Amino acid sequence: ADKCLLLKVHVTKQEDIEKAFTCMCEEFGRLDVVFNNVGYVILTEVEGTPINKAHELFETIVWGATNVSHAAVMFEPGKGGMMLQVS
Fold it and tell me: Quick one: which of 33, 53, 34, 36 has its CA closest to 87?
């Protein structure tokens, strides 16, 4: 039967990412698909965006997505699988 494991992961926290891949491994034993849906929104004009919020946005969208992608590739190098990237 087809199964899907949905996990909420804070992508800027490496321990959350590692926990997610551990849960997946325990549930399925292998990695078929990673749907990497990283998002962060600031609803204001550019000049009104506090610099710390701009840094959080960049950290989440760029490095968060990169961290999940890296963990997926390193999970089973050369074994195939699919990664869907949305941000």
Answer: 36
CA atoms of 5 and 29, how far apart (whole Å): 12
Report the C-alpha dihedral over residues 43, 40, 52, 48, rounded to 10 degrees.
-10
Asked if 65 and 87 count as a contact pair (C-beta separation under 8 A), the reply is yes
- Answer whether 63's CB lies under 8 Å from 36's CB: no
17-46 tens-digit pLDDT: 999 989 988 888 888 888 888 888 888 898
- Concatenated DSSP letters of 8-59: ---TT-HHHHHHHHHHHHHHHSS--EEEEE------S-GGGS-HHHHHHHHI
DSSP bridge pairs for 36 = 85
pTM summary value: 0.78
Answer whether 72's CB lies under 8 Å from 81's CB.
yes
Answer for the pair 38, 10: CB distance below 8 angstroms, yes or no.
no
